[in-house]
Write a structure and sequence with these properties.
The complex is a heterodimer of chains A (154) and B (104).
Chain A lengths: L4 H17 L4 H7 L4 H5 L3 H7 L6 E2 L3 E4 L3 E2 L5 E7 L4 E8 L6 E7 L3 E9 L5 E9 L2 E11 L7
Parallel strand pairs in A: 1-9, 3-9
Antiparallel strand pairs in A: 2-4, 4-7, 5-6, 5-8, 8-9
Chain B lengths: L5 E7 L2 E7 L23 E8 L2 E8 L8 E7 L6 E8 L4 E7 L2
Antiparallel strand pairs in B: 1-2, 2-5, 3-4, 3-6, 6-7
Classes of the chains: A alpha+beta (154), B mainly beta (104).
Amino acid sequence: MTLPSRRRSVLKTLISAAVWAGGLLPAWVARAAERNAPAFDAKTLDEGLAAAAVADAVETDLIVLKAPDIAENSALVHIEIESKLPDTRSILLFAEKNPQPFVAQFDILPGMDPFVAVRIKMAESAFLRVVVRAGGKSYVVRRETKVTLGGCSG
Amino acid sequence: MADPIKMRVTLAGDVATVKALIPHPMETGLRKDPVTNDMVPIHFIHHVVASHNDKPVLDAQWSRSVSKNPFLEFRVRGARSGDRISIRWEDNRGASGTGETVIK
């Protein structure tokens, strides 16, 4: 059977989803269905923020965003995020000039501290933007990181 | 089969700091193969769940912008020696992997 590779990967996804739905980790499957594809697929920051429903985030100093001023390797930019906002539910990370600016979303479930560290690729020097959903509202901090070479090729 | 996830956990009081490295190419779909000159197809982890004694504590959605062989650090509260920390990922092709470690 020769399917175009795209269709095959869709099929694979469907099959694996069906396997999981067979009883293994139902919570995993339920959450996996919630991926906000329009936000992740958005090609501009404004579209991404709107699709993630965080365009109205309020500036705060209760989110700590650690990132290098100048990244030596744009394919490995180390970022640490800590929220001091009560009732932090989600941490959303954007690299404002990446081809798709929405980099990652971390949902903080009970039992976890509102802290994550991750390494990302940056296409060019840009502001990083962290939005935290806490107590039913959205809050934002921004920080500029310069890169010497683009990271999306590496 | 994917290579195993490398995990290191340090316990301070009841807070377990978990550092993990997940072997994965994390291809953006924007890179050319230097030999064949063809575009390397997009291939990235899009979902990660970390659990403490099988109870999910972190549920992450990722894009292709997360680095190759992703590094992830997080902190679990209410942890004790002997508890299990596990990570499970799934990529855009439907492949998945898991890793588990016991807190010392």
